[in-house]
Amino acid sequence: MINPTFTYNNPNASCALCDRKKNPHPDYSHEPIVTTRLKLRRGDQDLCINCYWEIVALAMNSQANILDIVNEKLNMRRLITKNAPSISERYIRQPDNPNAASTKI
Ligand SMILES: [Zn+2]
């Protein structure tokens, strides 16, 4: 297993998987998120401490490699982001009247 080094108090910290920038812990909500940097084939990626430990648990349960899991998740994320319309173009159909004009969110 990789021995993670966590970075605290980096005001520019963000997570490559969940996009989180604010610390979700209620006692530390005034602090930036805690991140660790992983060296992947495509370059270094910062993950928040929550995503990191989730992936460690997944790796232990599935006997998979942590970096392989992160690569897979980043690939899926890229596909979803690429195929999803931007938020400004996203519309929701009204379920009770599918022919009605869509509502912008
Ligand atoms: Zn995260």
Write up this protein.
The chain is α+β, with helices and mostly antiparallel strands. The chain has one domain. Helices cover 30% and strands 17% of the residues. It has helices at 49-62, 66-83, and strands spanning 6-7, 35-40, 43-48, 91-92, 103-104. The strands form two sheets. Strands 1-2-3 form a three-stranded antiparallel beta sheet. Strands 4-5 form a two-stranded antiparallel ribbon. Strand 2 (35-40) and strand 3 (43-48) form a beta hairpin. The radius of gyration is 18 Å and the shape is globular. 10% of the residues are buried. The mean pLDDT is 84. Bound molecules: zinc ion. Zinc ion is lined by residues 15, 17-18, 20, 47-48, 50-51.
- Strand residues, percent: 15-25%
End-to-end gap: 43 Å
Low-confidence stretches: none
Overall form = globular
Note the main sheet: 3 strands, antiparallel
Heterogens = zinc ion
Topology overview:
Layout: E1 6-7, E2 35-40, E3 43-48, H1 49-62, H2 66-83, E4 91-92, E5 103-104
Antiparallel strand pairs: 1-2, 2-3, 4-5
The structure holds zinc ion (ZN).
Residues 15, 17-18, 20, 47-48, 50-51 line the site of zinc ion.
